[in-house]
């Protein structure tokens, strides 16, 4: 009969347990020193090795020839415990044996010495399911059991245990297994099964299992049933997961405030029979990754994704503010709760429409996001609306990033106001460059534009380092090193800059360089002397030097 992978490859010694050195090293040291406690408590999330370590410990304390704290696996006791011929190790499921009468039966059995082994070991799984009366009946025996009895309690919800139970046990906490360690174990199992498992697929299985190796092995077992060469696509199809590019497209639609694109992706995934509840959870996890990219310098160790996917997430994080990312996380988490009791597709579609259209969301978080946007001068209109193409210096046809014309001194004022001409009005003159510089005001959101512009491009980030921008009417004047203007001579870079400005400000600006006003030239000393002579009333013909 076929044996599933998590049973077939269950660890036989402590060294085979993956990702729990804080438990296995301590237990081995205690066994080597002969310090066997009368009661152990193993806690942690599902699939992390609690029952496995309990069985190894039960064999190790009874092994006739232990090897550095591990059971030898060859002696009579080890073989008898493996095949079930020795009944001195009893495994009890407290979920179905949680009454006081079940505990009383255990207490009566403890008075008998073991038939073959040295210790009679009781492994009580899911011990938090015992009733209060059963706990109280177990207290005295758990505190002072016979010398030949060892209790091993295992639970996933340690907070439900009575303090009197906790104080009588030696507690060991099992952690969620690191995805990289889990992926290595999965690849090892796949090789033993004669299959080929891609590293990216192993990482995806590990992330899906959420720290539980048993769940990961079960998913690997399913994938092996489909193909001997397991790729990312195999895992996606087997687990019913949405491919990561779908998640990126949904995040891109939220950043672009394009609800139609988001709804189209949801419809396509629904027709492909994707689990929308799991999709919502995955999208929440993707937004968590965007949050890490916004708040950490190197989010790689926490993201646990490929380099290409990490770069894509960093690029997307530049298109969303931190407030928008946190609002997306709150909305998706609330939607997960609502999907348990309502129509899953409708709830998810409503959530994405609210994220793409903040003006339709009346939650306090959305209002705070809109207030923040107003304070920073960011318009909340959809950026996908057509914007009138800028003219003058930023035309796509321009080959150079040219400054506005030099300031022209105004003509002298006439002595008498001339009558207005009756002819048709002349074309509107171009903006006075001097007035542009004089009325220019600093633009506070320039760092946000640079973040979008330099996402994934070190050259752009270096070129605009230390730059600033000013707003003067319809112009955005840029104060930057010469290398930045050389970069903007390229049409694609100017297009990227215009798109970044449009996303942040919601409008189009004409571009130009910011030139500081030159220092006034020193007055001519001869001209100054002539002015003083005129003030003193000296005739012109007498002004000889």
Layout of helices and strands:
Elements: H1 5-8, H2 21-32, E1 39-43, H3 50-62, H4 76-83, E2 89-93, H5 100-109, E3 120-125, H6 132-143, E4 149-155, H7 163-166, E5 170-173, H8 179-192, E6 196-197, H9 199-209, H10 213-226, E7 229-230, H11 232-239, H12 244-256, H13 259-271, H14 276-295, H15 300-303, H16 307-317, H17 322-339, H18 344-356, H19 364-375, H20 433-439, E8 441-442, H21 446-453, H22 458-463, E9 468-472, E10 475-479, H23 482-487, H24 491-505, E11 510-513, H25 525-536
Parallel strand pairs: 1-4, 1-5, 2-3, 3-4, 6-7, 10-11
Antiparallel strand pairs: 8-9, 9-10
Helix pairs in contact: 5-6, 8-9, 9-10, 9-11, 10-11, 12-13, 12-14, 12-16, 13-18, 14-16, 14-17, 17-18, 17-19, 21-24
Oligomer: single chain
Helix content: 40-55%
Instruction: Flag low-confidence runs.
Output: 378-409, 423-428
Major sheet attributes: 5 strands, parallel
How would the global form be characterised? elongated
Strand content: 5-15%
Question: How would you briefly describe this protein structure?
Answer:
With 545 residues, the chain is α/β, with parallel strands linked by helices. The protein contains 25 helices and 11 strands.
Describe the structure.
By secondary structure, the protein is an alpha/beta fold. The protein is 49% helix and 9% strand. The chain contains 25 helices and 11 strands. A hairpin with a 2-residue loop joins β9 and β10 (475-479). α9 (199-209) packs across α10. The model is unreliable at 378-409 and 423-428 (pLDDT under 50).
């Amino acid at each position: 009969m076929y044996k599933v992978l998590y049973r077939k490859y269950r660890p036989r010694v402590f060294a085979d347990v993956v990702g729990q050195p804080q438990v296995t090293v301590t237990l081995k040291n205690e066994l080597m020193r002969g310090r066997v406690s009368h009661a152990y408590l193993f806690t942690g999330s599902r699939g992390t090795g609690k029952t496995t370590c309990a069985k190894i410990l039960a064999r190790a304390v009874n092994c006739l020839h232990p090897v550095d704290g591990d059971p030898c696996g060859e002696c009579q006791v080890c073989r008898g415990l493996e095949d079930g011929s020795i009944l001195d190790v009893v495994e009890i499921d407290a979920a179905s044996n949680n009454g006081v009468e079940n505990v009383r039966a255990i207490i009566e059995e403890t008075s008998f010495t073991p038939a073959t082994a040295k210790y009679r070991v009781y492994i009580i799984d899911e011990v938090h399911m015992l009733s209060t009366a059963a706990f109280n009946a177990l207290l005295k025996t758990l505190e002072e059991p016979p010398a030949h009895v060892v209790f091993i309690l295992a639970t996933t919800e340690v907070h439900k245990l009575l303090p009197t139970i906790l104080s009588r046990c030696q507690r060991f906490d099992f952690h969620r297994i690191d995805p990289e360690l889990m992926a290595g174990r999965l690849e090892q199992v796949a090789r033993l099964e004669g299959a080929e498992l891609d590293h990216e697929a192993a990482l995806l299985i590990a992330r899906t299992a959420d720290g539980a190796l048993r769940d990961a092995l079960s998913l690997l077992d399913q994938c092996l049933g489909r193909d001997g060469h397991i790729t990312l696509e195999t895992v996606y199809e087997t687990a019913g997961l949405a491919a990561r590019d779908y998640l990126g497209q949904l995040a891109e639609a939220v950043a672009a405030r394009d609800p139609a694109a988001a709804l189209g992706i949801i419809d396509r995934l629904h027709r492909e029979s994707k689990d929308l509840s799991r999709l919502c959870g995955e999208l929440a996890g993707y937004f968590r990754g965007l949050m890490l990219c916004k708040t950490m310098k190197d989010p790689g160790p926490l993201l646990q994704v490929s380099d290409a996917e990490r770069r894509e997430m960093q690029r997307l994080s530049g298109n969303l503010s931190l407030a928008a990312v946190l609002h997306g996380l709150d909305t998706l988490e609330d939607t997960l709760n609502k999907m348990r009791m309502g129509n899953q597709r409708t709830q998810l579609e409503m959530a994405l429409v609210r994220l793409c259209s903040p003006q339709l969301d009346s939650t306090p978080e959305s209002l705070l996001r809109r207030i923040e946007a107003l304070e920073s001068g960011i318009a909340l209109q959809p950026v996908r609306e057509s914007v009138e193409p800028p003219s003058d210096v930023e035309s796509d046809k321009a080959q150079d990033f040219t400054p506005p014309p030099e300031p022209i001194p105004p003509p002298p004022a006439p002595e008498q106001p001339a009558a207005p001409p009756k002819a048709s009005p002349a074309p509107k003159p171009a903006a006075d460059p001097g007035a542009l510089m004089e009325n220019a005001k600093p633009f506070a959101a320039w760092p946000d534009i640079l973040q979008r512009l330099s996402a994934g491009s070190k050259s752009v980030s270096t070129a605009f380092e230390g730059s600033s921008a000013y707003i003067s009417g319809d112009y955005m004047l840029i104060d930057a090193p010469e290398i930045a203007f050389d970069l903007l001579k390229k049409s694609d870079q100017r297009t990227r800059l215009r798109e970044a400005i449009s996303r942040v400000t919601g409008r189009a600006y004409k571009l130009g360089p910011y030139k500081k006003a030159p220092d006034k030239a020193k007055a001519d000393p001869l001209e100054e002397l002539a002015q003083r002579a005129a003030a003193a009333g000296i005739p012109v013909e007498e002004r000889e030097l």
